[in-house]
Amino acid sequence: MPVVEVTQLRLRGVAPDSPALLQNLSSVRGILKTQSEFYSCIEDPTLIFILGLWPSLEAHQDFLASPRAAEVLGPQEGMLEFRWAVHIALDAMASLPLEAPLVAMTRRQVTDDDLDAYDKAFATEKQAILESSKHKVVHGWRLDAAPGTNEALLITGWETAQAHAAFRARQTARDDHHHIAASALYENLDTNHARNMERSST
Q1: Helices (DSSP H) in the chain: which residue ranges?
Q2: Best CA proximity match to 191, nearest among 41, 10, 88, 50
Q3: Is the pLDDT of residue 13 over 60?
Q4: Does the N-terminal or the C-terminal CB of the chain have fewer CB atoms within 10 Å?
Q5: Residue 198 and residue 14: Cα distance in Å, rounded?
Q6: Which residue intervals of the chain bear CATH 3.30.70.100?
Q7: What pLDDT is recorded for position 132?
Q8: What is the per-residue DSSP string for 182-199?
């Protein structure tokens, strides 16, 4: 089952628009053939995200456990510090809102008791997002979540971070019972907005 990897990394003494960094990232992409896209965090420019497609979760894990990983990723060690990685099922990179000027990545924690209710509430939330942003919406359950936990990853596309904030404000201001019902069913672990590093550098 194909999966998309979303990895957060912290920059070590290098700017997100550094030609050396982009060359390094694109070189690894070419070797691994993951069709990766690189994003710079708006809220914290010292953070970047790598979104890449793997044939399966096991394929990525096997690579990381292999001697080849040190050879391929070694040149990045001086530039990047690993923070976290999340994998969800995804058929193709084209399913992501990569065409959007900005993407929002939100991690949510949901209890076992709330799973069914969350799924139903999210169906309504997704429709509202599509109507407001006009970009693709990707939502999936984390395949490598800690035992006994349920973590969802939501990836949406927006014109600006302000447009996303305005959408959330409208949902709350109009006392939308679907929005309130959905937000009561999860803990928001993390939300980041980011721009494509290669597109920004052109």
Answers
A1: 19-32, 57-64, 67-73, 115-133, 161-173, 177-183, 197-200
A2: 41
A3: yes
A4: C
A5: 15
A6: 3-91, 102-194
A7: 92
A8: HHTT-EEEEEEEEEEHHH
Handedness of CA 117, 118, 124, 127 (dihedral sign): negative
Cut 0.70: pTM above it: yes
**Residue 144: its H or E element:** none
46 phi-psi bin (left φ>0, alpha ψ -120 to 50, beta other): alpha
Instruction: Look at residue 114 and tell me whether its pLDDT is greater than 80.
Output: yes
User: Is pLDDT above 90 for 101?
Assistant: yes
Q: Which CATH class is domain 3-91?
A: alpha beta
* Statement: residue 3 has pLDDT above 50: yes
- Looking at residue 8, what is its pLDDT? 98
pLDDT band at 202 (very low <50, low <70, confident <90, very high): very low
Which residues lie below 8 Å from residue 12, measured CB to CB, with a gap of 6+?
A: 78, 79, 80, 81
What is the sign, positive or negative, of the torsion defined by CA atoms of 99, 168, 189, 110?
negative
Where residue 108 falls (left for φ over 0; alpha for ψ -120 to 50; beta otherwise) is: beta
